[in-house]
Amino acid sequence: MKLRKFITPIGAVFAALLIVSAGAHAQLETDKVNGITIKRGYPLPQDVETLTSNLLLSRGVELYLWALPINQSYAGRDALIEASGGDMLDVTYFGGYSGHDVKLSTFNNETVYAAVHMELYDGPVVYEQPAMDDKGYLFGSIIDVWQVALTDLGIPEVTPDQGKGGKYLILPPDYSGEVPEGYLPIQSNSFQVRLGLRSVMLGEGTIDDAIARVKRVRVYPLSDPQRKQNYFDLLKKSVGGEVDKGVGAFRLMHDYISKEPIQEKDKYPIGMLRSLGIEKGQPFPTDRKTLELLQQAADIGWMTAKYNMTQSWPPSVLEGWKALGLAETWDPDFTTDDYIQVDERAAYFGLAIWPPRNMGSSTYYAITFSDTEDRPLEPGKTYKLHLPPNVPATSFWSVILYDAETASMIENPHKKYAISSLNKNLQQNEDGSVDVFFGPEAPEGHENNWIPTTKNDFFVGFRIYGPDLERLGKAWTAERPVRLPSE
User: Fold this and answer.
1) HSE of 88 in the Cβ direction (CA atoms, 13 Å)?
2) What does pTM read for this prediction?
3) Are 206 and 136 within 8 A, CB to CB?
4) What is the 3 state secondary structure string of 28-41?
């Protein structure tokens, strides 16, 4: 389908009305904005094409930002299934600590990750969550195609199984069948569902324990409990996962509206999709003019998204930092009583995946794109991040650098991405504080606490696992990185 469904009424109606009165219009011109004559009455005939193009392009940019959650959702699904050679319901995992060859957004290199992708077209699917023990637990969430968390997993205080493990029954939209006894029902708004997990180590738990815990996961159709469970270790594989930054982003929107029930809140943007020639039951547009427009919208949309990612966050309790989300204001659907948080939602899904249903109960995430003087972080500069003694982390803390373009771990020849309290060679100051350095070269004597940067723009992530919320941001805080003088 071409753009004619939208262009025809504008082109025909405006042209018919405007040509008749072109002479009168010329006398009423008052001003121009971006080449468009601003005047009383109808637009000038020669401005109609520009007005239409501007409208469609602006709609395309807004739609690109609106669809970032499903863009990330599909990107993760396709990357993991392609790298594994597996299929729906298979468990993909990283049997160790991954690096920059994994392009999934804001992964870290101190966690064993696992994921499962499922479709509910043929009925409910069962997920068996292992119980927590003294060596660790599986922490994560079950999310729909929009990455709205349906439930958290692993944290006793907020999960249906209370840390004891259990059988979760994930129900398709409008499911009216019975829920068998002994299952924990989770209702999904979409047929496509994702499961994102982190195998958290406790006490004497080892990485082998973390991997073994992942291999206790089982996922199968309710109708086929004997289905063989496949596990694919992707640790030594290159894995994609970057959001689509071209026409493909709009193909994903077409796939979504073709396969999923439409929620009330999404009918307006889906109406805008129709003006771009993208609608349910119709093939995706193939004409050159439409494809060029969609590519332009994606180009501008992605650049807008990257700028928005540096701005649209709630303030952190740490001075000058931004919070990935705050427990007291977090909503997994980015909806308040009065409005949808369009900018915050686009910022989050520009650089993150697998959000929780409850924010801040087990991990505190802070990010910064600037130094203590509000200057953007620059690849060619050297920085010091000072962490005062006794970081309020009952488990551990981590400082990690992410590439601004991919939101994955910053690529460098040293394959060194983070400094954390788990590092055996971590250098501490006499008072127990820690200085973390990042820049092109390691400051002399601080090599163990240095993260290399390259020519790529980057941002800093600071994770606190098991945060002591009574001290965080109160008795204990940390400023943003300080730019060190150039020699």
Assistant:
1) 14
2) 0.92
3) no
4) CEEEEECCEEEECC
